[in-house]
Design goal:
Blueprint (H helix, E strand, L loop, with lengths): L3 E5 L4 H12 L3 E6 L13 E5 L16 E4 L11 H10 L5 E7 L11 H11 L3 H13 L3 E5 L1 E3 L8 E4 L11 E3 H14 L5 E6 L1
Parallel strand pairs: 1-2, 1-4, 2-3, 4-5, 5-6, 6-10, 7-9
Antiparallel strand pairs: 8-10
GO molecular function, one term: oxidoreductase activity, acting on the CH-NH group of donors, NAD or NADP as acceptor
Organism: Streptomyces himastatinicus ATCC 53653
Pfam families: NAD_binding_10
Length: 206
Amino acid sequence: MIMRIAVLGASGRTGGALVDKALERGHEVVALVRTPAKVTVPASRQVEVRKADVTDPQSFPDLTDVDVTVSAIGIGKGDGPGALVAGARVLAAANVRATVWLGALGSGVSSRSGGLIYAGVMRMFVGSELAEKAEADRIALDAGATVFHAPDVTDGPLSPTRHIVPLADLRRPLLPPRISRVTLASLLLDEAETGRHGTGIVVPLS
């Protein structure tokens, strides 16, 4: 079934992968970005671009014409604290039928789910952002979203063994887990299309 999918953070690397995969599957795509000029797609591929600054909710575009929103926003260079929470709040208020929110394994309730080594790496490199990630997840969950706690994202091919597991069913790995960006994008779209896991935290795996 063809869907109208809004991608928040479409100008980022994961957001761009989401746009590409959604178009490959025949969906209509609405790219939500702070700077529309950063969205580049071939002229043959139809993408509607809407200026969307999560820190300015009064000007955030109407999304009542989309079927599902997939968020791929993160905390970018130059962003002050609060961008993730602001994004979660605007999507919670957007009145979209379904939302898939991208969070991070090792934050909030999954702080130890990636294993002890992974937890240490997260504290070292993402420590100052962990509290905000957890708060954004809570807002998204309260609004009924499916929240993905993705492990470390890398470049690489699409995994043929990709799958999604509820956080409660995740076996704690010994080594830090990873997932390729294209695999993550595909799994986010799988959930957007099916809504299989509903409200809750899930983990995408290769």
